[in-house]
Amino acid sequence: MFKKPAFQRTAATAPVEAHCDGPCGVYDPASARVAAEAVRSITKKILDLEPPSGDDPQAKVAYLNTMARFIAIKEEQAQITKDELLILWTDYFKPPHLEQYPDLHDTFWKAAKLCSSCKVEVNSAHCDELMTAVENIHNIFWATKKREIPWYTAS
User: Fold this and answer.
1) Where are the domains of the chain?
2) Any idea which architecture 28-144 has in CATH?
């Protein structure tokens, strides 16, 4: 028969919940806002990037390099936004929050889908919709903590 180690037999444990599956209990939608804002900013840069005129191979390479870097950043930041939102959705929000906000699942699901759209497309309207969704989640989150934290953007 397997016998538990002494520390497991004697230590009382209480369940803990946190974004990192550890006991820190630190949650904040600000990281999702920063990443979503980066998605919007880099999408604008992609749309504003002018291809080179003429047949200068160096100019063409520089353009393609810049475009590739912008796309990589956009996709990375959209994924970070999605990851941060999913942490809030799956780890912070609990059944009492769903009673208070019955559309919470739909709100997060649509925000996560917008993150995917921002990865797949170069669409400033979807970026703006994502920012609005993150703002809505920001407001819900802080309301559940009974704190008034103003929404702001860095850019």
Assistant:
1) 28-144
2) Up-down Bundle (1.20)
How far apart are the C-alpha atoms of 115 and 93, rounded to whole Å?
Answer: 20
Give exposure, 75-106, as e/b (b: 16+ Cβ within 10 Å).
eebbbbbbebbebbbeebbeeeeeeeeeebee
**The residue to which tokens 């819900």 are assigned:** 140
Return the structure tokens found at 5.
């180690």
- Please state at what angle helix 124-144 crosses helix 104-120, rounded to 10 degrees: 150
The per-residue pLDDT for range 11-62, each reduced to its tens digit, is 555 554 445 555 577 899 999 999 999 999 999 999 999 999 999 999 999 9
Residue 86 has pLDDT above 90, yes or no: yes
Q: Report the distance separating Cα 75 and Cα 92, nearest Å.
A: 25
Handedness of CA 101, 103, 109, 115 (dihedral sign): negative
